[in-house]
Amino acid sequence: MRRWRPLLAAVAVAIGVVLLAPGRASAAGGVTRADAIAELQSVRVSIDETLALFKAGRDAEAFEKARSGYLNHFEAVEIPLRVVDPTLTVEAESLFAEVRQLVKSGAPAGEVRAKVVELRGVIDDVERRLTSANAGAAAIVAGQSFLIIFREGLEVVLLLSVLLGYLESAKAGHFRRPVLMGVALAGLATLATVIALQTVFAAVPASRELLEAITAILAVVVLFYVSFWLISRLEHKRWMEFLKSKVWNAVAVGSTASLVLVGFTAVYREGFETALFYQSLLSFGDGLHLWVGIGLVAGIVALGLVSVMIFRLGRRLPIRTFLSIAVVLIMVTSVAFLGNAVAALQAADVVDYHRLPSWPRPPIFLSQATGYWPIRETVVAQAALVVVYLLGAFYMFVIRPRRHRAEPVLASPSVVTAA
After folding, report:
1. How far apart are CA 240 and CA 137, in angstroms?
2. How far is the C-alpha of 271 from the C-alpha of 153, rounded, in Å?
3. I want to staple 270 with a disulfide (CB 3.0 to 4.6 A). Which of 63, 152, 219, 307 is the partner?
4. What is the pLDDT of residues 305-339, one digit of tens each?
5. Which helix (H) or strand (E) holds 207?
6. Closest by Cα among 157, 146, 142, 151 to 273
7. What is the spatial distance between Cα 304 and Cα 298, in angstroms, rounded to a whole number?
8. pLDDT in tens, 103-155
9. What topology does CATH give the domain 25-130?
10. Distance of CA 334 to the CA centre of its chain
């Protein structure tokens, strides 16, 4: 047994070296991933200051700032980055060198600006490679994806259930086919819209960040409208009356073409909104696309179960409860989209940066999911939208109901007098 002790000791030492090796790799050169991520904030500030100095005509100072930003900050980031992605390391090094060369040679401002915008995107990629997607970001993005497809799809299901149910009760079952034909055409049009959005993103000469910002702003406008549109129809009776009015108007016309159009417009409006929302969600979901897909699949499955309950089992669902929850989640999603839109405009150098260094900065994936970035412009934009929602909700739930309750009271004296 004594003869085996030296061998066992050697094996133990070897195992210890193997187990400790990953820790050394993660802290290669004494720089951990957490250190590198913290250092990236200084890198971003140096990039912002380089561009500002160059715009002010202070080329020599801009060059020195670009040089010091790389040597004093990004070189520390390179140590752990080389371990996880050598290719991205080389790309970042090349962009830093190109920016310095353009500044030194007095290149046109447009060239320097374009290269800085590209560098900012690569710095974000670097942080993503050094960061793991946390459970909070994954859950938020998956929830947003689920909400989009389920809410939009449920509106289609409810509208079609009322439309087809009315045709059945009116002994007009022969109109079902043109309605379903319109639904199928709307599905194809939605798919074409998705392809068109991707094609536009690839073909338009504008920067990716600018296109992402424009798409997100459009999504925010639509979500804003949808939010108050839903609030005005939280009562189940009003909701059903709204749906039935569309059916009655179409049947009153009586033509096949009008019913095809009803089926098409009922679905394509939701399809267009869905394509727009997912384009925005994917634009700011780098590294989280898997969770977007998971939310999409879960939403489709849930929508399929609800459709069976409505069409096959004839069950009534708690529409008011779902709409009450959905309207809050839609508002939160629009706030996230707005924050990301402003951040994208800043990355594209359309809106200036005013960073808030004392404010906490969450991991990049959580920032993408919530749209919160510690930058004055994004915080102000999100806060303003929240205030608008609060004021709108106060009007819809407090002021307007009081006015409706007051109307019969004002009218009652004249009724008594008439009597």
Report:
1. 36
2. 8
3. 152
4. 988 887 776 667 777 777 778 888 889 999 999 99
5. none
6. 151
7. 10
8. 988 888 889 988 998 999 999 999 999 998 788 899 999 999 999 999 888 88
9. Four Helix Bundle (Hemerythrin (Met), subunit A) (1.20.120)
10. 8
